[in-house]
Amino acid sequence: xxxxxxSQPEMSVQxxxxxxxxxxYDTSENNYYLxxxxxxxxxxxxxxxxxxxxxxxxxxxxxxxxxxxxxAKSFSLKxxxxxxxxxxxxxxxxxxxxxxxxxxxxxxxxxILP
Amino acid sequence: DAMVIQNPRYQVTQFxxxxxxxCSQTLNHNVMYWYQQKSSQAPKLLFHYYDKxxxxxxxxxxxFQSRRxxxxxxxxxxxxxxxxxAAMYLCATSSGSEGWGYEQYFGPGTRLTVx
Lengths: 114, 115
Prior knowledge:
- The complex is a heterodimer.
- Chain A is mostly beta strands.
- Chain A has a single domain (3-113), classed as Immunoglobulin-like (Sandwich).
- Chain A is built from no helices and twelve strands.
- Chain A has strands at 3-5, 10-14, 19-21, 24-26, 32-39, 46-52, 60-61, 64-69, 74-79, 88-96, 103-104, 108-113.
- In chain B, the strands form two sheets. In chain B, strands 2, 4, 5, 6, 9, 10 and 11 form a seven-stranded mixed sheet that branches.
- In chain B, β4 (31-37) and β5 (44-50) form a beta hairpin.
- Chain B starts with a strand and ends with a strand.
- Chain B is an all-beta fold.
- Classes of the chains: A mainly beta, B mainly beta.
- The A-B interface holds A 33, 35, 43-47, 50, 52, 89, 91, 95, 97, 100-102, 104-107, 109 and B 31, 33, 40-43, 45, 48, 50, 55, 90, 92, 94, 96, 98, 101-109.
């Protein structure tokens, strides 16, 4: 069975700082996808970044980047130059290619402080 | 803009009174999902459709049912809501193919209150 673990229930950082959110997962599959989703307070969930397991290069989307360590089954999210609008719940998620479902971690609540 | 729409955004129902939540999508995605999300928790998958094929999660209570009459619409029926069913209900869609990166697109949710 696949599991996703986010070990940081809550974090706070000052605006403009860099913050890293941790995620580990467990699977015996080789073909899978990893995601970070953002859910701002009272707003809908959106995809932040996606990583295909077969790609060695870490995904980057503007201020968001991941550190994907396949052997260690680790998938952390780095937010650079954090902004007040980054305040949200962040969910790490995992999907086997052959399955329609994704598995969410429990989430990390991130507060960006002015 | 292509999107996932959920109606209503807020729903209040009485204990035991059936309620239906609706979801529509303009993305023409094959897969539609219903999640239940309680405060500060991860979304919990209730069931999903791949086209007309219905997939129920093993731990989804029988009180929850779903219908997907066509590609665009999906409904969540709660036959006899209990206080424990008060939650945010999220609808999501996915193309189901690698070309779209398997991303799920979420609606804004319906917040259900049971009185």
